[in-house]
């Protein structure tokens, strides 16, 4: 922690393992968008095993919102299926700790919070499908504008378990019709990162009353020849878990994801 | 021709070869929707070889509107790649003959019109993708209403050859957003029958000013929670050829297609 912080440009040069080592050493505490050289970034949810077992059922029932990439054994801080030496206690730039559903702290490391019964979940993220969309020549307005993607609470119920349930959160990207048709085809081939959209067109049909005021992220303008395209979003499980107020839940801070060794084009 | 006509119900029982034999014998002169037991039905265009060579280039350049299933050798009346003993002079229930772009006759047989330089084209048709849509639980309103699908001239230019060119004709099916997303995925896997849609949403963006007045086929109502989905249509090549006024062009009469031996699920 006494070394100087690294610049974003320096970090962009780093392969995933070296990047995680820099993050674990405390040299970077920011967002991971654009880092990791084409590797999968994951949403993180960490829960005590009692809640973890139920959350695993919830993810299984709601795969489009919660595509699981890996789950740890209780007490084991290593993701064994996402790459080399991925220690969830250190490898995320910034965490959020929720106690009984309330945000209590935003640490850079969770070593001191680790418990023998904690289970960590890595959940696929739409960053992985944005690169194939860009590679297909589809412009993504939030990227062009340097903004976070716009996300909205919908009126679509997810499939509940005993204590976990709630509405689906979606991310929205405005596109011309031809690009939307192409984006549906491309993302349908990537079920581990949310898959095909859940809705296109009129936002009010899924309970979104104004696209100008997203519930998470930043608004982007929509042109008259564009159609809004909505994908299930990895914010859903976080929002659902917080609403159920488990005694302890740790997540990544928004935008500060876990960078894995998996290639985006292979999920 | 002196045998009694067969009922539609009798014809539905017939496998493709027996159905074609009944048609060739003059026992049926109607539309083929619902006949052929799940086999591919084809749009037919027949041209003298001079025009045929250019039409083949046109189809190659405009594959989404003109997906070629088979082409005959000049003067050969048999489609060799679509099934057993398919004689294009007899096997279509009803033909249309255009001379210099004008409809001149609607015969049941073109034996007497056959020439040594005629080339026949079999072009994929959206009937083939409607069954997989229905099998996926997607309602098709024109079928529920017993109507022909609605088709529209657009302002989208096709890729021209020297003498052939014009605007794309599309078929339109209204769907709820979730069904539209699914239909895009299903039809994208069927490039030989028009593939993915060319447009979704606002019809005015492709030059269609009123969905209530289709240029071909029948209008269907669109509910407020439905989105219009537009596919390239096999009427495009017919419309383009007629506009160029070749001395002779023979097509199937609308809805009276060639029933082949190919399975819909294999194209």
From TrEMBL, chains A, B:
Descriptive protein name: Putative hydro-lyase BK666_02635
SUPFAM superfamilies: PSTPO5379-like
Enzyme Commission identifier(s): 4.2.1.-
One Pfam family from the record: D-Glu_cyclase
Protein keywords: Lyase
Enzyme class of the recorded protein, top EC level: lyase
KW Lyase (keyword) present: yes
Superkingdom, natural source: Bacteria
UniProt keyword annotation of Magnesium present: no
Family the UniProt entry places it in: Belongs to the D-glutamate cyclase family.
NCBIfam families for this protein: PRK05463.1
Molecular function via GO: lyase activity
């Amino acid at each position: 922690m006494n070394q100087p912080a690294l610049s974003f440009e320096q970090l962009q040069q780093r392969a995933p393992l070296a990047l995680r080592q820099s993050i674990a050493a405390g040299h970077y505490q920011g967002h991971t968008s654009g880092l990791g050289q084409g590797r999968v970034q994951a949403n993180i949810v960490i829960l005590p095993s009692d809640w973890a077992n139920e959350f695993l059922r919830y993810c299984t029932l709601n795969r489009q919102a919660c595509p699981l990439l890996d789950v740890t054994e209780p007490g084991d801080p290593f993701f064994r299926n996402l790459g080399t030496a991925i220690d969830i206690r250190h490898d995320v730039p910034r965490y959020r700790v929720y106690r009984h559903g309330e945000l209590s702290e935003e640490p850079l490391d969770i070593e001191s919070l680790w418990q023998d019964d904690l289970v960590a979940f890595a959940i696929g993220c739409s960053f992985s499908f944005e690169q194939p969309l860009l590679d297909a020549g589809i412009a993504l307005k939030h990227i062009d504008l340097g903004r976070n993607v716009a996300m909205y609470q919908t009126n679509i119920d997810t499939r509940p378990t005993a204590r976990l349930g709630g509405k689906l959160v979606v991310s929205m990207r405005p596109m011309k019709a031809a690009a939307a048709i192409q984006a549906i085809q491309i993302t349908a081939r990537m079920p581990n990162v949310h898959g095909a959209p859940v809705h296109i067109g009129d936002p009010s049909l899924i309970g979104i009353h104004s696209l100008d005021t997203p519930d998470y992220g930043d608004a982007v303008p929509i042109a008259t020849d564009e159609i809004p395209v909505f994908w299930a979003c990895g914010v859903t499980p976080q929002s659902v878990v917080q609403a159920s107020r488990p005694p302890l839940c740790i997540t990544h801070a928004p935008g500060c994801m876990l960078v894995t060794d998996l290639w985006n084009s292979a999920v």
